[in-house]
Sequence to fold (130 residues):
Amino acid sequence: MEVDFQPEDSSSFREGIELGGVKDMRSEADAVVSDVLFAVNEMYVSQSLDSALDVAYINVQTRETNRYCLELTEAGLRVVGYAFDEVNEDLSTQYHETIYSLLDTLSPGYREAFGNALLQRLERLQQTGH
Fold:
């Protein structure tokens, strides 16, 4: 199941912060973290690895307690290490267009948390009549 939807508020998803025609990946990484923090054990933008306008690194621990270092670029997100703040240049992992798609492939616990959040949101909408 590939998920490209944020259950709480799809208007919070940002296409990036534009600075002279270039996305600021550090700001985008912050937005990525805030969008899915509810569905993982731990997630934050790396302070140890150098981020730039064109690349940022995100550390994530899934609900299964697996740790990953993710790279965020214009091409998307991909796993670059299997520990926090680890970049393995020899890894050639698939790019994902969204954090939802990437976490969906890595973590059954993410899928469950995401599904539960979506169900709760739908129930609230049904109760309010919207």
Notes: The longest helix spans residues 108-128. The domain at 15-128 is CATH 3.30.2280.10 (copper amine oxidase-like fold). Residues 8 and 121 are 7 Å apart (CA to CA). The chain has three helices and six strands.
